[in-house]
Structure formats: structure tokens, C-alpha cells
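User: For my dataset I need records formatted as: sequence, then C-alpha cells, nothing else. Please produce one.
Assistant:
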Amino acid sequence: MGTALVTGASSGLGARTAQMLAARGYRVVGAARRVELIERLDGVHPVHLDLTDPESIERAVRDAETAVGPIELLVNDAGYGEFGSVEETPVEQARRQFEVNVFGLAGLTQRVLGPMRRAGHGRIVNVSSLAGEFSSPMGGWYHASKFALEALSDSLRAEVRPFGIAVTVVQPGPVRTPWHEAAMTLLEQTSGHGAYAPMARAVARYHRANQDRPITSDVEDVAAAIVRAATAPRPRARYRVGRGAGTAVALSRLPDRAFDAMMRRQLGLAAGEPTREHDPRVSARTEARR
């Protein structure tokens, strides 16, 4: 079929996508920091990749090319979420999120584009999120990184089309992976004890409850959508995955105040002024009485 490089292949969506592509006959290289986990995947050649390190990116692509030849399909799945209030999230942590989700991804993409362009064909699939379409409380830095990925993908799609290279974005909603619990743990560590604690608890409670709801997709379904985006003869610009994904995006186009009010109700947050639970002065008095 061809050659493929899949990032984030040590677990979750990346691992399953790599397996599916290998089953279709692709010569697949899986890239991640934990190479030992990729070694368990049948038909997937493992390489080490740290997206925050330009030398690691160059080394990973060279190793991939040595193993399977020039990369014809790049699936950018690696990424992580740093949740917490904008005020309380250290800029160093926010910067690292951008290094992985945006700049490292862009550096890897740049490295494979030259050979694709000279060959006159190629495919790039960027795994984004519905979080790249609208923002919600406590996820500002994560949303910002996905907004940036969406913009880069749109520009890149127009730039490389004349060279026979297709760029497409996959936008999953919630997915049943350990990713969400890790993100909520970071949220509680960052914003679970200060002025934003009631809001952080409400957001974490909402996202954890979603793991058992129909809007949350299984890894198998999302990986299948990534493979469709990677193999379709004429891929769409975007593939939204999950029950209600299209509706969620449509609702995000409501007037800002209406969308904000709907988001507050959905998350179980107080509207307008802080309630007694949300007022830090009341919280302080309550703690003093305990």
C-alpha cells in the first residue's frame, strides 16, 4: 500500500491506528517516547520520538526512512492536555503543551513535506479535537493549542495541494482512554485548591461523567475514522467523530453570550455572580468554622 509514520503510537488512538494501517498493508512506523510499548504492536516498526526535541524529530524520521522508505502518510496523533485556569497554569507548562501539540508537530511535518513534494504525492492527517472548534472553562491552553493546529492545517492544506499532498483533520469528541483522567488530575492539581476550585471540581465532575455517556467514542471508532481520513481517495478537510459532534459545533456558532450561558448550565456552574459555593469569601468563612 505505502509507508506510514504514526506518532503517539505507544497507546490509545495512535497505537490502534498504527495497527489498522499495518493490517491494510502499509509499512508502518510507530513513534513515541516509550518505544517498548510500540514493540508489542504487530507489523509496526518502533522509533523513539520526543516532539520537544528537534534532534529527536530528525533522528526519528531518518530511522523511519531507513526502515520503510520515504514517508508517504504522516498521522500526527501525539499530544496531551494541560488543564487548569488560564491564571493558575504556569506559562512554562502552557508552553510545553504548545511545543508538543503545535511546534513539535509542525517540525515533524516540515521534515516529511520535502520528500512528499518532490515525489508529487503524500497525505498528512492531523488529529485535532472538537476542542479546536470552541473553548470551555479550565481548558483554555489546551483549546488554544488545538485552535492553532486547526489554523495551521487549513493553511497547509491550501499550500501543498498543488504538489499532490492532501491534508485533513480528524476532530474527535470525548474518547474512552486514560487521557481524560490524566487531564482531570492535572486540572485538580493546578486549580483544585484556590479561587477557581469550585469551577475546577464542576468541570472535572462533568468530564468524568461523560466517560459513561453515549457522546463518548470508543478508541476503535475514532481510529477507524483516522484510517478513513488517511486512505480515502478524496479525503474531506475535516472528519468529526462522535455522537453529537456536528451538533456541538453548530451550537458553538450561537451568539457568544448564549453559548456561554449554555456552557455554564452544561457544566453545572453558577450563572452571573458567584453563589455561596463559588464565593471565595464564603468558602474562607466556612473553612474557618471547621
